[in-house]
Amino acid sequence: MQEMARKNVVLRTEGLQSDSTCSSKDVRLRVRYGECQRNIALEVGGYALDGCREFMASTVEGSQGTEGALICAPCDCHRSFHQRMVEPEAA
Hints:
Layout: E1 7-10, E2 13-16, E3 27-36, E4 82-88
Antiparallel strand pairs: 1-2, 2-3, 3-4
């Protein structure tokens, strides 16, 4: 049985522990939140997206860790509705 890789989340980057198939170096990944996937026409039985292209926190930069940092300013929805994109970080 294979073990799952552990994730350590720090702000917007993640460090993944290497497993036996990878090299011994840690892999750094950058996490971005892209297009909003919330269906705003669900109540009437349809399907429509609001057009928000990227998550932007509704609070100022100094308020990291607050609940407002998880709400998108343009579309007023939670960060979990936005597409999560994981990219390798440049060394």
